[in-house]
Design goal:
The chain is α/β, with parallel strands linked by helices. It has two domains: 124 residues, Response regulator (Rossmann fold); 144 residues, 3-Layer(aba) Sandwich (Rossmann fold). The protein is built from 13 helices and twelve strands. It has a six-stranded parallel beta sheet with strand order 2-1-3-4-5-11, sandwiched between helices. The protein starts with a helix and ends with a helix.
């Protein structure tokens, strides 16, 4: 009896051991999501990614990154950073075997980070989904909503000036005369915006730092409406405040694009190059459109037309 019991227990122990070994992956696949701040938008992106990935995800704020245990980091395949501050932390504390995807970060901020630290990191280990929209897409939208317009303008700040060459190139490609000015922090936005907008058929708002965005938005909306010039904004708030149309990517769309890069990496073994989001949202202010006497297509029609344009 004792012998049979001993054999039974031995078989049971071996079965449990085999099941335990099978349940342990040969190569653990972990993902670390770093937040720049505990903010609703950042949390939305992180939770969307966590919910829709096959990787085991852990969410931390950027301050904790340097102190995460080596044992855990040895299991991490990829780090996804949400916001510029988290991306900067991942770059500064570069880890040899970890790949990084930065999302919810402007093109200018990402390029500055990579260029600044190019001698201490391996650039192919880094990629990004940019927060802003490609200039080509904005200019194409301008041509669609105002087919007879001849001139287009924008205002650059210290960060957004990186887009100047693209603005001129794509503006000319779509048949526009391009006008732009640069706003220094010490300048009065009204004095810079007024002559710029008055000699334009369309004004495109391009995001810069928070102070610049607040200063420009208020007066650009007022001056364009007073002069009956269409303004293309870069957020939902812009259209709600009076811009005839806005072009932007939602947190969910940015998270979805980030997931596409994650899947490519886990399935193909390499990171795709940094890019703008292929997913975007168009918001029309119909009241402003009526004021400007613009007969605009539906958002669905505009979306399909812009998809054909690409980045």
């Amino acid at each position: 009896m004792g012998t049979k019991t001993g054999k039974y227990l031995k078989r049971k122990y071996l079965t449990l051991l085999i099941l335990m070994l099978i349940s342990i992956p040969v190569s653990a696949k972990e993902m670390l999501i770093l937040l720049s701040e505990n903010h609703a938008v950042h949390n939305t992106v992180a939770q969307y990614i966590e919910k829709n990935t096959l990787l085991r995800a852990r969410i931390e704020t950027y301050e904790n990154y340097p102190y995460i245990s080596t044992n855990f980091m040895d299991t991490v395949q990829i780090v996804v950073t949400v916001g510029a501050r988290a991306c900067e932390t991942a770059v500064i504390h570069h880890k040899v075997n970890v790949h990084v995807i930065c999302t919810l970060i402007p093109l200018q901020a990402y390029k500055t980070l990579i260029n600044t630290h190019q001698h201490t990191i391996n650039a192919p280990q880094y990629s990004a989904i940019y927060l802003d929209q490609p200039i080509k897409r904005k200019v194409a939208l301008s041509r669609i909503i105002a087919p007879n317009a001849t001139s287009i303008s924008t205002l650059f700040g210290q960060s957004s000036v990186i887009h100047r060459e693209d603005f001129e190139r794509h503006g000319e490609a779509f048949g526009f005369n391009t006008h732009h000015s640069f706003l220094h922090e010490s300048q009065n936005p009204v004095q810079v915006l007024t002559p710029l907008i008055q000699r334009s058929d369309i004004f495109i708002a391009i995001p810069d730092n928070a102070h610049f965005n607040r200063s420009v938005a208020r007066w650009a909306l007022y001056i364009t409406l007073r002069n009956k010039i269409p303004l293309i904004g870069f957020s939902e708030n812009y259209s709600e405040a009076g811009a005839v149309i806005s072009l932007y990517s939602t947190p969910e769309q940015l998270a979805s694009e980030t997931l596409n890069k994650i899947r490519t990496f886990t399935q193909e073994g390499y990171l795709e190059k940094p890019s703008y989001s292929n997913q975007f949202t168009i918001k029309i202010n119909r009241a402003t459109a009526r004021t400007l006497r613009l007969d605009l297509p539906t958002t669905e029609e505009l979306f399909l037309l812009l998809q054909e344009v690409g980045q």
